[in-house]
Amino acid sequence: MGNSLLSLLYLYTFLVQPHLKKPIDAIFMHLTLVNILNLPLTLLPNIMASFGVQRFLDDVGCKAVVFLSRVTRGLSICTTSLLSVFQAITISSVQAQWVWLKSKSSLWIFPSFLFFWVINMAIYVRVITDLKATSNFTLVGSGFSNAYCHSLQIKASTSWQFICVLLARDLVFVILMISTSLHMVKLLYQHHQRTQHLHSPSLASQPAPENKATHTILLLVSCFVFFYCSNNIVLFYYFYTPVKIQTLQVMAT
Fold first, then answer.
1. pLDDT tens for residues 160-214?
2. Distance in angstroms (rounded) separating the CA atoms of residues 94 and 231
3. CB of 110 within 8 A of CB of 26?
4. N or C: fewer beta carbons within 10 Å in the chain?
């Protein structure tokens, strides 16, 4: 519901009040739409299975649902990282060496979206060939499986290549997000040091806005990285364990 309302708000701004739109709004809207798509694609098979619906998805449905859910999940980390980079460039633009970068950054947003879609679709294209519908709810054997789909037998070398590609993508974007967040924290600290002597004595005992912003950035980034990495660990464990546990399957999606 929250993502839907945000999406409608940004869409309204783009169509009805274009003079109010900012380049960062496009990133927020893309991230919101990706999350809106990912949520039903991820939860729908589990919901239908909980009601005992059998053969809800055929081979084509399995391939489409799992492929799109994985792609949108990958787009989420990519777009979040882009948002962090854009915010870091924005607050750094007061420095002369960053001014030229801010003027060009808005031109890179939509090409970045296209790059994210292409790279994630290329990573998960093997889902189309390795996945098929299953005829029962039994979850056994290594590989991906849920109530309606399971992957064919995959060679160990091939599966490790796929895992390495996923880890490389995640590491690049997570490290990029952490680096830009720490850069913003550094800038906020420097700004606080420069303006500390300008604050009146009555405000000295109150928390500085820079400190509040720093705590918020660190909290959000820490939570995102923790939950994203935890989800990956559960997903990889679920992928390789021969006996599937339904609870882990829900956590891994």
1. 788 888 889 989 999 999 998 888 888 877 766 766 655 555 545 555 666 677 7
2. 38
3. yes
4. N
Q: Give the separation between CA 77 and CA 169, rounded to whole angstroms.
A: 9
Find residue 243's DSSP bridge partners: 140
Taking the C-alpha atoms of residue 60 and residue 65, their distance in angstroms, rounded to an integer, is 9
Angle at 218 between CA 214 and CA 219, to 5 degrees: 115
Whole-number Å distance between alpha carbons of 52 and 65: 19
pLDDT category of residue 1 using cuts at 50, 70 and 90: very low
* Contact by Cβ (8 Å): 37, 68: yes
Q: Name 103's Cβ contacts closer than 8 Å, sequence gap at least 6.
A: none
**CB 65, CB 57: distance < 8 Å:** yes
The secondary structure element, H or E, covering residue 149 is: strand 149-151
Residue 250 pLDDT more than 80? no
Cα separations in angstroms, 39 against 7, 34, 90, 106, 245: 14, 9, 30, 28, 21
Q: Is 166 helix (H, G, I), strand (E, B) or coil?
A: helix
Residue type present at position 34: V
- First vs last C-alpha separation in the chain: 20
- CA gap 186, 193 in Å, rounded: 11
Give yes or no for a contact between 24 and 87, defined as CB atoms under 8 angstroms apart: yes
